[in-house]
From TrEMBL, chain A:
Protein name: Acyl-CoA dehydrogenase
Similarity section: Belongs to the acyl-CoA dehydrogenase family.
High-level lineage: Bacteria, Bacillati, Actinomycetota, Actinomycetes, Streptosporangiales
GO terms, molecular function: flavin adenine dinucleotide binding; oxidoreductase activity, acting on the CH-CH group of donors
Acyl-CoA dehydrogenase/oxidase N-terminal domain: residues covered: 15-115
Cofactor(s) the record lists: FAD
Location of the Acyl-CoA dehydrogenase/oxidase C-terminal domain: 225-382
Acyl-CoA oxidase/dehydrogenase middle domain location: 119-213
Keyword Kinase: no
Key words, A-Z: FAD, Flavoprotein, Oxidoreductase
Presence of the UniProt keyword Flavoprotein in the record: yes
TrEMBL record, chain B:
Pfam families given in the database record: Acyl-CoA_dh_1, Acyl-CoA_dh_N
Protein name stated in the entry: Acyl-CoA dehydrogenase
Alphabetical keyword list: FAD, Flavoprotein, Oxidoreductase
Cofactor: FAD
Keyword Cell membrane part of the UniProt annotation: no
InterPro entries in the cross-refs: AcylCo_DH-like_C, AcylCo_DH/oxidase_C, AcylCoA_DH/ox_N, AcylCoA_DH/ox_N_sf, AcylCoA_DH/oxidase_NM_dom_sf
SUPFAM superfamilies named in the record: Acyl-CoA dehydrogenase C-terminal domain-like, Acyl-CoA dehydrogenase NM domain-like
Domain Acyl-CoA dehydrogenase/oxidase N-terminal: 12-113
Length: 401, 380
């Protein structure tokens, strides 16, 4: 194994060989998942595009799906990783890009193995689409910061060990310039996590109150006042989450209504038939678009279509779940359970149609509203000029709030 | 559901072909000069078609032994995109798609005609109404008796300039496909909604036809020609939509009102973002339809035929409305100039709306899909 090619010269077959060698050494049947993942991290097969010693091999990013598919083919896909979306998808790439060697050594491995769960303290009641307007204050005292403010829509905060946090460190400069990025210990004194009940009756998310929370300066990620630039890396990774696998035709919510249509001739009317066929066509078009994007990524040529995938997904979910209720008629007037609870993991399709309808209302708001995504496409893809801005050159403290 | 994973990207060869077609059109047939010729009696640009034939466009799916390019329908689809983007008035759809596919499916009986079509020495068309959907059965408008054909077919595409007519007709021995020299038929122009694509009524009064396919073979040849036509029409529609989007984005960057480019208003930019999303989706759907149609002529393509029909219907159901929407948005966002005859935009609107009716409306294709994917209509 030591004579094998390394770094950027690695190709798909060399990586498949490494996976085969690895599995031969660590039998997934007899190795505990966390130990198996720790060894996989040490072997550089966690994120192949990360540097050696930090979970990777310095290989091209496009080869990661090859490794994931190979582990899966050999019968080993890690389970119970739903709680790691923020850590794996957002914290890890940001720590890799901006972390000190000490920070990378401390956080990346337990993040990958699932030992430590992460959450994201970004949005605030007064800073949603306009994240840069955030008002959570961090004041420096010696080699530590004191942080106070309120964050919202924080999934996993009640389970998380660490958070990625953006806070205002200089209110006297324009809003994008006075932000600093931190790693926040969720077990620190002054961190108060409260469930945020949503229209479905349950609470997937939290409000997080920060009351004079002390954060050592060694947990700052990137320079003072550099937080906006660091956050761009995090948010960019939020939108690049196209899976390595092709999706089958008629997957997701459209399969539920299609099955319902097949099994219940009594529900069929001409108008519903027309709506169902239109949505079936739209869902298939969205699937093929995602598949085309996946094929582009696989040859290392990602297209800008990724920014549109989330938008299409939310629109389809909302329209299909609305149709599902219409189709059901009287049965659509019921709901499974309004009881307040904290759901764990994904159970979307197992819930009742009323839940599908209500939950999907959040899809066009969370992770970038539809309106903001349209602006991004118009300005970054089509090159259209931005709206005139009144907030760019004004000190944050002087902006209307 | 089992569906084959199709290549949805463009190959290097396809991109090269696109570049040569585009540069030829930009040089010889920019939208302004298309606009200038639409009121001529002879709208179809036969000189341009000859030049396109020289770079292989007339016979892409025809084998090299017969003077074609020996390529696949994926290449044809790239050409269709470019011809749509330029609303080029050439007989690609009638001759290189419909007539050529029908004759290719007829085996060795029509090699001479195929060779002439592929080389661009002559053009042909399939004598069915251009609005006809693939699943609408074998047409009975033309009757055959003792090798003589009689009947009238309205709204035939590219018939005015055709040398060879491929005629589906029903006789004592059932359905058949016949080759008829255009000189044997009376071809009467109709005033078409689409200024750049002339339609004509074809009247046969005892014309002598040579049978090239019979019975189930003739039915299959016709069906494959129409399915292929539907798939490639969607590629043309994508090209129309792409032109409309590009032209409107350019205009929104330069047209100033209220002291700033109109493209800086969210009311405008959100509409263009929506359109861009639809056009990107249309591209994936069109690539899928072209790749699936390309498998139709592979040996033993049984299951592929169903998959090609699903993809072609999906493409017509989806892309028709994208192209129409793109042209309509283009007109609205151009404001007054978009409503004038002097701006070429109306050529694209007319092409888009007419294409949406051609080879089956979106609604007919949705209905075809409902049968194919087991989403049945309510019983009465």
């Amino acid at each position: 194994m030591t004579t094998a090619p390394a770094g950027a010269s690695l190709d798909a077959s060399a990586l498949r060989q490494r996976v085969a060698d690895f599995v031969a050494e660590y039998d997934p049947e007899t190795t505990d998942q966390r130990d198996f993942l720790a060894a996989r991290f040490d072997a550089g097969l966690a994120w192949v595009h990360f540097p050696e010693g930090e979970g990777g091999l310095g290989a091209p990013r496009a080869l990661q799906p090859v490794v994931d598919e190979e582990f899966e083919r050999l019968g080993y896909t890690p389970v119970g990783r739903e709680g790691l979306v923020i850590g794996l998808g957002m914290a890890a790439p940001t720590i890799l890009a901006f972390g000190t060697p000490e920070q990378r050594a401390r956080y990346l491995k337990p993040l990958y193995t699932g030992e430590e769960i992460w959450c994201q303290l970004f949005s605030e009641p007064g800073a949603g689409s306009d994240l840069a307007a955030l008002g959570t204050r961090a004041v420096r005292e010696g080699d530590a910061w004191t942080v106070s403010g309120q964050k919202v829509w924080t999934s996993l905060a009640h389970r998380a060990r660490f958070a990625i946090l953006v806070a205002r460190t200089d209110p006297d400069v324009p809003k994008h310039k006075g932000i600093t990025y931190f790693i926040c210990d969720m077990s620190a004194e002054g961190v108060d996590v409260r469930a945020l009940r949503q229209i479905t009756g349950e609470a997937e998310f939290n409000e997080v109150y920060l009351n004079d929370v002390r954060i050592p300066d060694s947990q700052r990620l990137g320079g003072e006042g550099e937080g906006w630039r660091v956050a761009q890396t995090t948010l960019m990774n939020e939108r690049v989450s196209i899976g390595g696998h092709p999706e089958p035709r008629e997957g997701g919510l459209i399969s539920l209504v299609s099955q319902l249509w097949r099994e219940r001739p009594d529900l069929r009317t001409p108008g519903l038939h027309d709506q169902l066929l239109r949505l079936w066509v739209d869902a298939e078009a969205a699937r093929l678009t995602k598949e085309r994007l996946r094929q582009q990524l696989a040859i290392g040529q990602p297209g800008p279509e990724g920014s549109a995938a989330k938008y299409s997904f939310s629109r389809l979910n909302q329209e299909i779940s609305g149709l599902e209720l219409e189709m059901l008629g009287a049965e659509g007037m019921t709901y499974d359970d309004w009881t307040f609870r904290r759901p764990e993991g994904v159970e979307f399709t197992k819930r009742s149609p009323g839940f599908h309808y209500l939950r999907s209302k959040g899809n066009s708001i969370e992770g970038g509203t539809t309106e903001i995504l349209r602006n991004i496409i118009a300005e970054r893809v089509l090159g259209l000029p931005s709206e005139p801005r009144t907030d760019k050159d004004v000190a944050w403290k002087d902006l209307p709030k | 559901m089992s569906e084959k994973r199709l290549d949805l990207l463009y190959s290097e060869v396809e991109e090269e072909l696109r570049a040569s077609v585009r540069s030829l059109l930009e040089d010889k047939s920019p939208p302004e000069s298309v606009l200038a010729r639409v009121e001529d009696d002879r709208i179809t640009d036969t000189a341009l078609w000859k030049e396109l034939a020289e770079i292989g466009v007339a016979g892409l799916p025809v084998s090299e032994e017969l003077g074609g390019a020996g390529a696949s329908l994926r290449e044809s689809a790239v050409v269709a995109e470019e011809l749509g983007r330029g609303v080029a008035p050439v007989p690609f759809m009638g001759s290189a798609v419909l007539a050529t596919t029908a004759l290719l499916e007829s085996g060795d009986a029509a090699t001479q005609e195929l060779e002439a079509l592929a080389g661009g020495e002559s053009t042909g068309t399939l004598v069915v109404g251009f609005a006809r959907a693939p699943g609408s059965g074998f047409p009975e408008a033309v009757q055959e008796n003792g090798g003589k054909l009689r009947g009238n077919v309205g709204g035939v595409v590219d018939a005015l300039t055709a040398d060879v007519l491929v005629v589906p007709a029903v006789g004592d021995s059932g359905p058949g496909l016949y080759v008829v020299p255009a000189s044997e038929a009376t071809v009467t122009p109709v005033v078409s909604l689409d200024l750049t694509r002339p339609l004509a009524d074809v009247s046969l009064e005892g014309a002598a036809g040579r049978r090239v396919a019979s019975g189930a073979d003739a039915e299959r040849a016709l069906r494959h020609a129409l399915v292929t036509g539907a798939a490639l029409l969607s590629a043309e529609q994508l090209g129309v939509a792409q032109w409309a989007l590009d032209a409107t984005v350019d205009y929104a960057k330069t047209r100033t009102q209220f002291g700033r480019p109109i493209g800086s208003f969210q009311a405008v930019k959100h509409r263009l973002a929506d359109l861009w999303i639809s056009v990107s989706q249309a591209r994936a759907v069109v690539r899928s339809a072209a790749s699936a149609a390309a498998t139709l002529r592979e040996p033993g393509a049984g299951a592929e035929a169903a998959e090609a029909e699903i993809n072609a219907s999906l493409a017509q159901a989806f892309v028709s409305s994208v192209a129409v929407k793109a042209a309509e948005e283009a007109l609205q966002l151009h404001g007054g100039i978009g409503f004038t005859w002097e701006h070429p935009l109306h050529l694209f609107l007319k092409r888009a709306k007419s294409d949406a009716l051609a080879l089956g409306t979106a609604d007919r294709h949705r209905l075809a899909l409902s049968g194919r994917v087991d989403l049945p209509a309510p019983s009465a």
